[in-house]
């Protein structure tokens, strides 16, 4: 456990990519088995664990405040696995702003719930402000769960264009979340 805490601090305090890789190597296999037990899909489990570790890197500056990183990663993996199943099911499509934040973000305090709500609102603002094609691609992939190939076919564009549009959308969302606004002051979000 001490090793895990050292890695956690190295990532949080120094943005240490080596520590991040070590953390991944230490926990990814167990997390993938755990996710597979929920998703029943090797590819899905790999995607879920990858997303969980991306989330860890994105929030690296706040990692020092997490008391049990392993538990946090397992909870995140569980939630992402359930989200993966929901996306793959034939249930009616629900867009992000129609879903209560509490149903997919674990909050332990009113403050965390408020932050989660503000985060969802920020994402929603960025998505609504995307150029038309970029917004359509993002919504088809993330909200409707279509594969890049399916989106390309539906919009009559190349898979490469879909990939590029998703990169643009995720960068804009990431920058908005990093700076806490949709367009950071003095920082143009480029395509």
TrEMBL record:
The keyword Transcription regulation applies. Belongs to the sigma-70 factor family. ECF subfamily. Keywords: Sigma factor, Transcription, Transcription regulation. This is RNA polymerase sigma-70 factor (ECF subfamily). The keyword Transcription regulation applies. One of its GO terms (biological process) is DNA-templated transcription initiation. Transmembrane segments: none annotated. One of its GO terms (molecular function) is sigma factor activity. Residues 32-90 form the RNA polymerase sigma-70 region domain. Pfam families: Sigma70_r2, Sigma70_r4_2. It comes from Lacibacter cauensis. InterPro entries: RNA_pol_sigma-70-like, RNA_pol_sigma-70_dom, RNA_pol_sigma70_bacteroid, RNA_pol_sigma70_r2, RNA_pol_sigma70_r4_t2, RNA_pol_sigma_r2, RNA_pol_sigma_r3/r4-like, WH-like_DNA-bd_sf. Residues 122-167 form the RNA polymerase sigma factor 70 region 4 type domain.
């Amino acid at each position: 456990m001490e090793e895990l805490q050292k890695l956690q601090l190295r990532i949080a305090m120094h943005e240490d990519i080596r520590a991040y890789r070590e953390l991944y190597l230490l926990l990814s296999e167990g997390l993938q088995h755990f996710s597979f037990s929920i998703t029943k899909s090797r590819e899905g489990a790999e995607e879920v664990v990858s997303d969980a570790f991306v989330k860890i890197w994105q929030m690296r500056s706040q990692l020092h405040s997490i008391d049990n990183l392993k538990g946090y990663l397992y909870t995140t993996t569980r939630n992402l696995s359930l989200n993966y199943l929901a996306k793959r099911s034939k249930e009616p499509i629900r867009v992000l702003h129609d879903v209560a934040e509490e149903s997919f973000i674990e909050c332990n305090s009113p403050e965390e719930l408020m932050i989660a709500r503000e985060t969802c609102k920020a994402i929603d603002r960025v998505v609504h402000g995307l150029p038309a094609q970029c917004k359509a691609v993002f919504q088809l992939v993330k909200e409707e769960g279509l594969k890049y190939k399916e989106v390309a076919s539906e919009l009559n564009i190349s898979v490469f264009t879909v990939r590029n549009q998703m990169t643009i959308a995720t960068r804009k969302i990431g920058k908005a979340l990093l700076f806490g606004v949709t367009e950071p002051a003095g920082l143009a979000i480029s395509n």
